[in-house]
Amino acid sequence: MIETKSLQPLTRPQTLHASVQESLKAYIDENRLRGGDPLPPESFLAQQLAVSRNSVREAIKALESVGILETRRGIGVFVRAFSFDPLLEHLAYGLRGSLREVGELVEIRRVLEVALIEKTVEMIGEDDLAELRAVTDRMRVRAEHHESFADEDKAFHLLLFRCQGNQMLSKLIDVFWLAFYKASDFVNLDNPNPLATWKDHHDIVEAVAARDVEAARARLDHHYHGILGVIAKNGETAR
Among 24, 86, 200, 218, who pairs with 223 as Cys (CB 3.0-4.6 Å)? Predict the structure, then answer.
């Protein structure tokens, strides 16, 4: 049987709530707990920390809110497997209604994708190119009917980098996209030329298909500058 390390009594009662959280996180790290592993009962944790069960309960709730722990009713408290969901929710909430911060988020995403497009050019196969072209075809039809193509936009950027097999990259793109749309309500921003937005995506695909790294970078960069222009224009209108 593997011996686990014990919790230590708190030495900073003046910041009790935060201290309990830090102690629980330290317990998880020191005992190398992973997603799905259980924590000891609240009564044991309270005794080890020399605090009330209510303090432990509040700390657990706080750690649940940031995705570190999860409570399974009638079973106990468990370490939660890593997920970007809490980050996404907090990011979207924090950015809501602020086009300046949304613009900064888009700039970070632009740098990330432009830097990594070379690897896509090297690795992408015909199946992914066919799917990308199908997505851009749907974009064109929606643009011609002045309809939003937010779902197609999300699918496009995930497909563009899928060939790299980088799960962290895919999750980051997903986080950036969802936070951007939730925070800015971009589908309701005034885009004066949706067909130009469609053509940006079309040109990116064709540059990638031609294995032209510089053209792919330039067209992806141009696409993001277009988005930033729409955000800036709407920000000026709001002011």
Answer: 200
Q: What sign does the CA torsion over 17, 18, 23, 24 have?
A: positive
Q: Are residues 56 and 158 in the same domain?
A: no
> Could you tell me if residue 7 is inside a domain?
no
Asked whether residue 176 carries a pLDDT value surpassing 50, the answer given is yes
Mean pLDDT, range 133-156, rounded to an integer: 92
Identify the residue with better confidence: 87 or 104: 104
Handedness of CA 196, 202, 205, 211 (dihedral sign): negative
Q: Domain containing 114 — which CATH number?
A: 1.20.120.530
User: What is the Cα–Cα distance from 96 to 214, expressed in whole angstroms?
Assistant: 35
Q: Phi-psi category of 71—alpha, beta or left, where left has phi over 0 and alpha has psi -120 to 50?
A: beta
Instruction: Quote the CA–CA distance of 48 and 39 in Å, as a whole number.
Output: 13
The model carries a pTM of 0.67
Q: What DSSP designation does 212 have?
A: -
Mean of the per-residue pLDDT values for the chain?
84
Give Rg (Cα) of the chain: 23
Arithmetic mean of pLDDT, 205-223: 96
Sign of the alpha-carbon dihedral angle for 218, 176, 104, 185 = positive
Q: Which residue has the tokens 């044991």?
A: 44
Listed range (30-44, 57-71, 178-192) with the worst mean pLDDT: 178-192
Number of Cβ within a 10 Å radius of residue 50: 12
